[in-house]
Design goal:
single chain; alpha/beta; six-stranded mixed sheet; 14 strands; about 25% strand; globular
Length: about 290
């Protein structure tokens, strides 16, 4: 009996040590990594004249969260600019609350919104930097976050579209508000203003919007999931969205396409496990 008790005790001790080491890795090591992942996607309703169009997608910055210092923000800016993108698309959650749902006061943020943007303002792309608002941004104060994004020259799109000319073709960026605000996608009006309906890049924060987006988009880009942030063996990712297939990467359903980036920051416990932070570099080509 004593032998079995000793065996159980040693086993529990080993498990406790292993869990401790995993927690150390998940908090101190993986969140500090930033991969620049390259993807080439063949998308519908995309003009061949635009083949090679390069997007840098960045999501879930969460300024002031674990490892997301001012120095790290400037480093992310250098990484993004180094890709020489045609556009940079910011997919929401720029701030991080010290108390969830706190609203209206910088003291409730781990890093003030103006400080976050001052360290991102050097982001540059050939045709501009476009942004949407995430749930943490409107939990805090959407007007403040939007004003700070616009102060540093980024174009914020909420159920509206912006366009520019590239290689003789018009490219549209269609911003869709965060799904958790109303649980519905209402972009009929901005879509009606786009003619012909081609070369449309949709941007939103929450990938649950994908189920309601029209098939006229060439692709929808989203973040929010952090790639699951923590991947539990035999269970999978801990997901803040409805479908596990929306965890990260390239999703194709009924001819419609979406790409979900894992983002660069953290929320909650500040850990990442098997969900390494990434800046996603997407090169689009016609199907």
């Amino acid at each position: 009996m004593k032998k079995w008790l000793r065996y159980i005790g040693v086993t529990l001790a080993v498990l406790a040590i292993m869990l401790g080491l995993l927690a150390i890795y998940a908090y101190f090591i993986e969140p500090r990594i930033t991969l620049v992942n390259q993807y080439t996607l063949k998308v519908p309703h995309w003009s061949k004249e635009l083949n090679g169009f390069k997007i840098v997608a960045i999501s879930d910055i969460h300024g002031g969260s674990n490892t997301m210092t001012e120095e790290k923000l400037r480093y992310l800016t250098e990484l993004a600019n180094g890709q020489q993108p045609d556009v940079i698309l910011l997919l929401g959650d720029y701030v991080s609350q010290s108390q969830r749902h706190a609203a209206g006061h910088d003291k409730d943020l781990r890093m003030p919104a103006d400080v976050v943007m001052d360290n991102l303002k050097a982001l540059k792309a050939k045709y501009g930097v476009f942004a949407v608002i995430g749930n943490h941004d409107w939990w805090y104060d959407e007007k403040i976050v939007r004003a700070e994004l616009e102060r540093v020259g980024f174009r914020v799109l909420e159920n509206e579209a912006a366009s520019f000319e590239a290689n003789g073709k018009k490219v549209w960026i269609l911003g869709i508000e965060d799904f958790w605000k109303r649980k519905t996608v209402d972009i009929a009006q901005p879509l009606a203003e786009i003619e012909p309906q081609e070369n449309i890049i949709g941007i939103t924060h929450n990938p649950d919007s994908f189920d309601q987006t029209p098939d006229s988009l060439s692709i929808l880009l989203a973040g929010h999931t952090h790639g699951g942030q923590i991947y539990i063996p035999f269970y999978g990712p801990v997901m803040p969205v409805a479908k596990k297939e929306y965890t990260s990467g390239h999703i194709v359903h009924d001819g419609r396409q979406m790409f979900v980036t894992k983002g660069v920051g953290t929320s909650g416990p500040g850990m990442r496990f098997c969900a390494v932070p990434e800046i996603s570099v997407l090169t689009l080509e016609a199907e």
